[in-house]
Specification:
tRNA-splicing ligase RtcB; seven-stranded antiparallel β-sheet; six-stranded mixed β-sheet; RtcB; manganese; RNA ligase (GTP) activity
Length: 405
């Protein structure tokens, strides 16, 4: 297998940084952040950097951080379990209606979008209650809260099956053969955010009491050590959030498919279906060693494993199969990756540019989604070219409908 990674400069860090970044931008702030996390004594044997890499909070988005005996909550982040789901249908392009706007509105009616009150169900279907009960999610959350009552969960039932805001989306896509796909991107919603925020703060408070024999360059790299009660509590809570996120995507997918059946010809689902996290941590075996692997904006890409790498609102997305590359800890990118911050995008992208870039897609064209416009992201073509030894492309999808929160 040919290797396309390069060793990134890590001044003062004993841990190597392997980056799949040829042909894609890597700004100095993101590289400095990578150096900071590589300097931690419990990180290693190396850090893997995906081509969609960009600055994040605590840890760089688009990075794979293996740790020994410690876990960094800010590296996992607050959108715990965020990820993608996609399914191929037997529908073809000719089966889609002339009015895609009407279909888009129909989907928006059954899957609440946005944050806060606008992101809550007005009428919760029975399936949401039964999903919470049958999955054991409520029982598990109560067990977490019994030890940490400051974790609130007032929206846990209202937000299951809802999209959220930011870069979360629902898309109707066509592949290279004209088959219709449903693809969506979301995570553990408000409750996952509360869990992440709570444990990040607890890690910072623990840091104040620690006596370290080394310099910690960023307080967002505060950590829990294996054997500490907070370590086990965090693992339990983050596992809950990851499972909630997966159920959230499943609930949304069921709603979208139900709505398609009301508006389109009869169809079946094909075997090609994927549901994968890209913000999470789990214990894995690599190189004969048990490691805690944090993927912050990265997807598991074990040999033969299916994954999703989305583009932006106006660019292609990809269904991929992992090649099981050990150097990347069996990982690949989770998308195109931002090239502009949200603030920069609002300042630099005009509404006219956004409308031109999304002219072929039925989607929002207003100023409120400028920060999600294609120009705010790296070239998905360049990102895919940089990781040819991580994944193979099975299907190329182009969206015809894109729903944003």
């Amino acid at each position: 297998m040919s290797h396309t990674y390069e060793l990134l400069h890590a001044e003062g860090a004993p841990t190597p940084i392997k980056g799949w970044v040829r042909g894609v931008p890597l700004d100095e702030q993101a590289q400095r952040q990578l150096q900071n996390i590589a300097a931690l004594p419990f990180v290693g044997p190396w850090v893997a950097v995906m081509p969609d890499v960009h600055l994040g909070k605590g840890a760089t988005v688009g990075s794979v951080v293996p740790t020994r005996g410690a876990i960094v909550p800010a590296a996992v982040g607050v959108d715990i379990g965020c990820g993608m789901a996609a399914v191929r249908t037997t529908l073809r392009a000719k089966d889609l209606p002339d009015s895609l706007a009407r279909l888009r509105c129909a989907i928006e009616r059954v899957v609440p979008v946005g944050n806060g009150p606008g992101g809550e169900h007005r009428k919760r279907p029975d399936s949401i209650d039964s999903r919470l009960d049958q999955s054991g999610l409520m029982t598990r959350l109560e067990a977490v809260r019994a030890k940490h009552p400051k974790i609130r969960y007032d929206k846990v039932d209202k937000q299951l099956g809802t999209l959220g805001g930011g870069n979360h989306f629902i898309e109707i896509c066509l592949d290279e053969g004209g088959a219709v796909w449903v693809m969506l991107h979301s995570g553990s919603r408000g409750t996952g955010n509360l869990i992440g925020t709570y444990f990040i703060e607890r890690a910072r408070r623990e840091l104040e009491r620690r006596v370290l024999g080394y310099h910690l360059p960023d307080k967002d790299l505060a950590f829990f050590l294996e054997g500490e009660p907070l370590f086990d509590d965090y693992v339990e809570a983050v596992s809950w959030a990851q499972d909630y996120a997966r159920h959230n995507r499943e609930a949304m997918m069921a709603r979208v498919l139900h709505e398609l059946r009301q508006h389109l010809p009869k169809f079946q689902l094909e075997k090609m279906a994927v549901n994968c996290h890209h913000n999470y941590v789990q214990r894995e075996q690599h190189h004969g060693e048990s490691l805690l692997v944090t993927r912050k904006g990265a997807v598991s890409a074990r040999q033969g494993e299916l994954g999703i790498i989305p583009g932006s609102m106006g660019a292609c997305s990809y269904i991929v199969r992992g090649k099981g590359n050990e150097d990347s800890f069996h990982s690949c990118s989770h998308g195109a990756g931002r090239v502009m911050s949200r603030t920069q995008a609002r300042q630099n992208i005009t509404l006219k540019q956004h409308r031109e870039a999304t002219a072929h897609v039925e989607c929002r064209k207003d100023a409120a989604v400028i920060d999600e416009s294609p120009a705010a992201y790296k070239s998905i073509d360049a990102v895919m070219a940089a990781q040819t030894d991580l994944v193979e492309v099975l299907h190329t999808l182009r969206q015809v409908i894109c729903i944003k929160g």
